[in-house]
Amino acid sequence: MDGVVIQNGAQQVFTRYQNQGNWLEQMRGSLMVVATVIASLTFQIAINPPGGVWQTNTNKTEDGCAFNTTCKAGTSVIASSGDSDQKFRYEVFTLLCAISFSASQTIILLLVTGFQLSNKFVMWLLIIVNCISVFCTAGAYIISIWMIMYPLDGPFSKLALYYGLFWALLVVLIFLGFFCRLVFWLLKSFFRLLCCCLRRKDIGDY
């Protein structure tokens, strides 16, 4: 009878670890695909910025170039414009793209180099990094629309505001969900380890 119980327990443990391995492999593939797409997207945005680039060197303010500044060919039109608000939006846009690109490249590098990812905790950290990359891409999209359609009037301004609030709320909810799952997993692992230690102690005393 004891042998049957031990065999069933071992089979359950094997099945659990097998399911965990399948989940980890599926998440590895999903993370690689999403990170590759986002990295390609943000790279294209960097070399093709919103508003285009200057085709020739110019220092004419009527063309949109900042006063007493030479706008060189190949540089961003918005970045070298005389509108300080637009320049600030472009800087935020560039920062979001840089964060998204760096996060995606980090995930790709860890997956390609065979980094040890057989732990759910490590995989969840990579998922969080991937979520940050996605959210930064969404933020860059909002700001790019804002720059191109500046100034936003009427329904477009409300639509952009609601879109931004939607993503902000989604970020908060997803991070809360991940945080709760992480805390639950840590507590579960801690109590499981504690039970194993107490069981070994009881066996040793016996």
Structural account:
- 17% of the residues are buried.
- The protein folds into two domains: 17-149; 151-206.
- Mean pLDDT is 75; it is low at 1-19.
- The protein has 206 residues and is an all-alpha fold.
- Helix 2 (84-112) runs antiparallel to helix 3 and helix 3 (120-148) packs antiparallel against helix 4.
- The longest helix has 51 residues, at 155-205.
- The protein has helices at residues 2-47, 84-112, 120-148, 155-205.
Q: What is the overall number of helices?
A: 4
Question: Which consecutive residue ranges, at least 5 long each, have pLDDT under 50?
Answer: 1-19
How would you sum up the global shape?
A: elongated
What's the oligomerization state? Answer: single chain
Order of helices and strands: HHHH
Query: What summary fits the major beta sheet?
Result: none
Count of domain modules:
2
Describe the protein's topology.
Layout: H1 2-47, H2 84-112, H3 120-148, H4 155-205
Could you provide a short overview of the structure?
Keywords: ANK repeat, Membrane, Repeat, Transmembrane, Transmembrane helix. With 206 residues, the chain is mainly α.
Structure keywords:
single chain; 206 residues; mainly alpha; 4 helices; elongated; disordered N terminus
